[in-house]
Write a structure and sequence with these properties.
Elements (H helix, E strand, L loop, with lengths): L11 E8 L2 H12 L2 E6 L4 E6 L8 E5 L11 E6 L3 H10 L3 E8 L3 E7 L5 E7 L3
Parallel strand pairs: 1-4, 5-8
Antiparallel strand pairs: 1-5, 2-3, 3-4, 6-7, 7-8
Length: 130
């Protein structure tokens, strides 16, 4: 990944929807917004990269609530880019939030699901260092 293609710190760099039946929901978004679902092997099942019409780059993911996503709520999860994931997770708890689960390697970087003091869930993402 080039420095130019990395999401900027403080921006939403990705979003996933985790649901029980990703195949049906993938088809829902295909018919409603025109996204094409491309399978992504998850080791025994497929999640989906959702590609907008006229684009080659995915805009989002639709994931089964299985494997590493088994404990995630059925909701759109945004990934907010941070400079230093470990430091940001320390700030989460210091500011009254909760770290939900372990730090995970997403291939392009590390991320962790958090809950803010109001109960809203998101993920913090740190791009892989060069």
């Amino acid at each position: 990944m080039s420095e130019q293609s990395k999401p900027a710190v403080g921006t939403v760099g990705w979003m996933d929807l985790t649901v029980k039946d990703a195949v049906a929901v993938k088809d829902f978004y295909r018919d409603v917004v025109g996204w094409k679902g491309v399978g992504l092997d998850m080791g025994g099942y497929e999640d989906f990269l959702m590609i907008p019409p006229g684009s080659e780059a995915p805009a989002a993911g639709v994931c089964h609530a299985r494997g590493p996503n088994a404990d995630l709520p059925a909701a759109w999860l945004v990934y907010i880019t941070v400079e230093d994931l470990d430091r940001s997770l320390e700030r989460v708890t210091a500011m009254g939030g909760k770290v939900r689960g372990q730090i995970r390697d997403g291939g392009m970087g590390r991320y962790c699901v958090i809950e803010d003091p109001s109960g809203a869930v998101s993920a913090l993402f740190e791009s892989k260092k060069a």
